[in-house]
Every structure is written in structure tokens, then in C-alpha cells.
Amino acid sequence: MGPFIVTAFNPVRMIIVTALACIILSEQLFLGSIIGAIVVVVGLYLVVWVKSKEYKARNDMQQSPTKDNTLQDQQQLPVTAPTKESSDI
User: Fold this and answer.
1) Residue 37: which of 16, 18, 15, 69 has the closest Cα?
2) Which SS3 state, helix, strand or coil, does residue 53 take?
3) 3 with 31: CB under 8 angstroms?
4) Alpha-carbon span 37 to 19, nearest angstrom
5) Tens of pLDDT along 29-54?
């Protein structure tokens, strides 16, 4: 996930700035700002939730190979390096 999470949390800064402006500077908070903040938080949650499911599925796929992968591995020929004996012949 790495840098993706840092980028996804950038809109949260605007919510924090708005909240601090209301508290410290006594600015008015409008309904549109509250609805926008809720939409941003829900969207962020959905993105992180889907990303974690994707990451979990990728790890599960790497840890437990499927029948198709094992059958495909069995059908491939092994690669071997020539030995000195075979090059002398």
C-alpha cells in the first residue's frame, strides 16, 4: 500500500483545517462543508477498504497456488545448464 495511503489521506487535511478554523478563528461552518467532509471520509474509507481486500487477495494467491498453476508448472520442462561432459561429446 505504501505511498498510496499517504496520497489518499491528503483530503483529510482540508477537513482538519476547516475544523481548526471553526474552533480557533470562530468561522462559520455551513451544511455543505459538513456534507463534503462526510463524503470525503466515506470515500477514503471505501478506498482503503478495497485496497486492503486487494492486498489480502494478492497475498493469498501467492501463498496458496491453485490447481491450474500447479498443473501448468508440471507441464513445463525444467531448464538445465550444460555440463562439461556433454560439451566434450
Assistant:
1) 15
2) helix
3) no
4) 10
5) 899 988 988 998 898 888 888 888 88
